[in-house]
């Protein structure tokens, strides 16, 4: 039986620019799960596209070759290529909501895959329901009658996986399949993928920026940096004894939920709290996004707010910052500032860094120059006259942080401030946030779905569940001895199921 | 291949200590989704598009004709030869029923058209942008009031509304300008409003609010620059329609009055001769078509270059 995928010295370039994938060689056996890890710009998604010959027109294969289940997709004519795509390769992408046709019921959409295989009528319907049951739906009939928007993100991804399954592929390509899903949902989806691999005997190419996740679910791991495979090996070995400096740094940058955070230089100050919230409720019609929350944040304290998507944590953060109308009482000392998730949307694209910072300094009553402020967040003076579109994600987030610290402030609400960043950039931004917090003595309300990130920063942690603050406590207590069943559940789902002990890493 | 072998083989373009997050490197290559920034490179990209260049050339030609026909010695009013002569070397586009040179009339006819349509478009774009910004940013009651009154304006068939205004206030170019401007304002306002709604949801607007910026600053200094591409494209599309509508109204006798060489009016007056002297109506009609198509070409290219 031929390998599920063979890449031999593959080099891909866009137009005449420098190649984005350089001399990549790897082989995936049937039934093997191979994890390809890389940060943004490493070329990992280009590999995913190349496998099914979905590369954009400007891309070209400079050298090397590629074989899926023994045939080269680039040597096939249209009909044979279509045959290969419908029978040998299945792809699952990051955003399941966009992979599904919003105007078509789930059952019919899934049925199309069988239709292509020439299965009709009652038999097709039976197969559809059977496939839905296999990906973990208890009531396949109900799901089949739904439209994609009536399903949650995790359910949508299960449907996409069901469609991939229906192909009975030799190679299953998953490009960031769980990014954007809650930890519990993510764990479920990955277990499902693993189970199906065992059943189908397909080769799996799992592509992600998330090293611990890949290590936990793959047999072998390849580390892709700037288009080159810098390290490859058994998943456990790569994580525990990384040999390439890049991999070592990558492993070190992953925030760990099971390690206590570094000691604080400037512990919180006793005295009147900076934030005092009583009975905060935010309603949207009959639905309460946040219900009767009481909360205090001390001066110089970092308060981590965790919860899954839809739990109301972002709404609570925005209400405290004064961005949305609400019921209840919020008292703040000093003016709140906010650092947002998306670095692309949080800066005015038509204004240079210098102008953005100068305006913030003026409005917030700061006494620094834009250059001084930029230096504090680690931005060189040469970046001051650039527009946000000319900066990287990490640089943009630094500008957004500088803007929040432009004047004397009491509280900074960080709403998923590092979630959109690569793990290594995230580590640096977290260090920056900690450093600024110590030197300026401000308080943070740090909202995040990522428990490991919260652990790295927070003094105290609050857990949101369905609009209510179900547990509040010292970070140490929450992470080591959670009281509320929901807290216990999210911790269980998030603790990285690594191949073995963690000693080697810490 | 062993891990060590791979490590040795990989010649990464950066130092091992800096192995992580070459943020500056990423800025160059990885950020493919870079927003198109007006002013920088947009003009260059436009000039590489043949349809844009053709559109601009035709519009420029008519603009020059409108400005310069007198200096070039064209007389659209005096008889220049026998009536209804076919195009010849003496009269390139022939003559009309009064023996006036059609070339002179077509060139001179650019002037009234290029007075009415751009002015009306400018007024409508300015008013529509202001109203769209206000409705989109403030939402709530203001938005409802504005949008519902626009619905009322929409309820009249556009051309009837314009007819009403121009017949109520007399037949002059100025009335025509105002009538078309009123008719187009709600259309521009809607388009701008929807662009404003998209921008208002972005966090830079919220950051400005947290910074204590006033509403007027946020609307005109934060949001307006970001919806400007939409405004420009919408204005250009409206300009094409305005040329169309003003020619139509002149055709109906509500705009320019004889002996004006206005294209719409000339087509209207000469349409009775069309069977034996097609050139009298065809050339001014062709003039309208070239101008409208060219402006639309410009609009399409602007949209493609600024919204991707």
From TrEMBL, chain A:
Pfam families: ABC_tran (PF00005), oligo_HPY (PF08352)
Membrane topology: Peripheral membrane protein
Residues annotated as domain ABC transporter: 5-251, 275-491
Keyword terms of this UniProt record: ATP-binding, Cell membrane, Membrane, Nucleotide-binding, Transport
CDD domains: ABC_NikE_OppD_transporters
GO MF entry, a single one: ATP binding
Cellular compartments annotated: Cell membrane
PANTHER family (UniProt xref): DIPEPTIDE TRANSPORT ATP-BINDING PROTEIN DPPD, OLIGOPEPTIDE TRANSPORT ATP-BINDING PROTEIN APPD
Family note: Belongs to the ABC transporter superfamily.
Protein name in the entry: ABC transporter ATP-binding protein
UniProtKB/TrEMBL annotation, chain B:
Entry's localization field: Cell membrane
Record membrane topology: Multi-pass membrane protein
Pfam name, any one: BPD_transp_1
Family stated for the protein in its record: Belongs to the binding-protein-dependent transport system permease family.
Residue runs in coiled coils: none
Keyword vocabulary terms for this entry: Cell membrane, Membrane, Transmembrane, Transmembrane helix, Transport
Organism domain of life: Bacteria
Signal peptide: none
Protein name according to UniProt: ABC transporter permease
Residue stretches spanning the membrane: 50-69, 116-138, 150-167, 173-192, 239-256, 276-299
Residue ranges annotated for the ABC transmembrane type-1 domain, each copy included: 110-299
């Amino acid at each position: 039986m031929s390998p599920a995928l063979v890449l031999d010295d593959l080099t891909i370039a866009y137009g005449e620019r420098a190649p984005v994938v350089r001399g990549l060689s790897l082989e995936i056996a049937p039934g093997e799960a191979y994890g390809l890890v890389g940060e943004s710009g490493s070329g990992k998604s280009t590999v995913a596209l190349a496998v099914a010959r979905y590369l954009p027109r400007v891309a070209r294969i400079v050298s090397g070759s590629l074989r899926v289940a023994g045939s080269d997709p680039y040597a096939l004519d249209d009909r044979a290529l279509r045959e290969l795509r419908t029978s040998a390769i299945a792809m699952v992408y990051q955003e399941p909501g966009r992979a599904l046709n919003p105007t078509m019921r789930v059952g019919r959409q899934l049925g199309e895959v069988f239709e292509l295989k020439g299965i009709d009528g009652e038999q097709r319907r039976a197969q559809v329901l059977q496939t839905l049951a296999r990906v973990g739906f208890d009531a396949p009939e109900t799901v089949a009658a739904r439209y994609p928007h009536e399903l949650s993100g995790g359910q949508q991804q299960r449907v996409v996986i069901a469609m991939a399954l229906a192909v009975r592929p030799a190679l299953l390509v998953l490009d960031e399949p769980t990014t954007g899903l809650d930890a519990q949902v993510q764990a479920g989806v990955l277990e499902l993928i693993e189970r199906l691999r065992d059943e189908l005997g397909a080769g799996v190419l799992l592509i992600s920026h998330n090293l611990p996740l890949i290590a936990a679910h793959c047999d072998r791991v390849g580390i892709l940096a700037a288009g080159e495979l810098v390290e490859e090996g058994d998943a456990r070995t790569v994580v525990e004894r990384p040999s390439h400096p890049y991999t070592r740094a990558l492993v070190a940058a992953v925030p760990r939920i099971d390690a206590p955070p570094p000691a604080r230089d400037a512990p919180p100050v006793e005295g009147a709290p900076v934030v005092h919230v009583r009975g905060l409720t935010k309603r949207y019609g009959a639905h309460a996004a946040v219900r009767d929350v009481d909360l205090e944040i001390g001066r110089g304290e970092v308060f981590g707010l965790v919860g899954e998507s839809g739990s109301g944590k972002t709404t609570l953060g925005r209400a405290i910052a004064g961005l949305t109308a609400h019921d209840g009482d919020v008292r703040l000392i000093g003016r709140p500032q906010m650092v947002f998730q998306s670095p692309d949307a949080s800066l005015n694209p038509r204004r240079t860094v210098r102008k953005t910072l100068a305006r913030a300094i003026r409005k917030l009553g700061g006494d620094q120059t834009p250059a001084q402020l930029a230096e504090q967040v680690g931005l060189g003076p040469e970046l001051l006259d650039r527009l946000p579109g000319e900066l990287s994600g990490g640089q943009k987030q630094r500008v957004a942080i500088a803007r929040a610290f432009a004047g004397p402030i009491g509280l900074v609400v960080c709403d998923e401030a590092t979630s959109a960043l690569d793990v290594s950039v995230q580590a640096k931004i977290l260090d920056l946030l900690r450093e600024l917090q110590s030197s300026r003595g401000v308080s943070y309300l740090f909202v995040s779905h990522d428990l490991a990130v919260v652990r790295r920063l927070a003094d105290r942690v609050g857990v949101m569940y369905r609009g209510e603050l179900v547990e509040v406590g010292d970070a140490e207590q929450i992470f080591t001895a959670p009281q509320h069943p929901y807290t216990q559940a999210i911790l269980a789902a998030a603790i990285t199921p690594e191949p073995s002990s963690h000693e080697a890493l810490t | 291949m062993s891990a060590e072998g791979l490590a040795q083989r990989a010649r990464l373009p950066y130092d091992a200590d800096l192995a992580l997050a070459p943020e500056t490197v990423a800025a160059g290559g990885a950020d493919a989704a870079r927003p198109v920034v007006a002013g920088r490179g947009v003009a260059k990209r436009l000039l590489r598009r043949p349809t844009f260049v053709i559109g601009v050339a035709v519009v420029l030609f008519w603009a020059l004709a409108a400005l310069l026909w007198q200096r070039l010695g064209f007389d659209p009013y005096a008889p220049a030869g026998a009536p209804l002569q076919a195009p010849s070397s003496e009269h390139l586009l022939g003559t009309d029923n009064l023996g006036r040179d059609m070339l002179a009339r077509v060139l001179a006819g650019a002037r009234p058209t290029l007075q009415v349509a751009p002015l009306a478009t400018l007024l409508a774009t300015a008013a529509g942008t202001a109203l769209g910004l206000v409705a989109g940013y403030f939402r709530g009651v203001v938005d409802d009031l504005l949008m519902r009154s626009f619905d009322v304006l929409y309820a009249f068939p556009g051309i009837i509304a314009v007819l009403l205004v121009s017949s109520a206030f007399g037949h002059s170019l100025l009335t025509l300008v105002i009538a078309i401007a009123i008719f187009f304002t709600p259309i521009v306002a809607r388009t701008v409003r929807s662009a404003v709604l998209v921008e208002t949801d972005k966090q830079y607007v919220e950051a400005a609010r947290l910074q204590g910026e006033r509403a007027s600053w946020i609307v005109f200094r934060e949001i307006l620059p970001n919806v400007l591409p939409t405004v420009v494209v919408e204005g250009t599309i409206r300009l094409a329609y305005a040329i169309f509508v003003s020619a139509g109204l002149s055709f109906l006798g509500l705009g320019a009055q004889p002996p004006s060489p206005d294209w719409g009016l000339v087509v209207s007056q000469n349409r009775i001769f069309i069977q034996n002297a097609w050139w009298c109506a065809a050339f001014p009609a062709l003039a309208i078509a070239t101008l409208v198509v060219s402006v639309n070409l410009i609009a399409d290219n602007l949209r493609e270059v600024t919204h991707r």
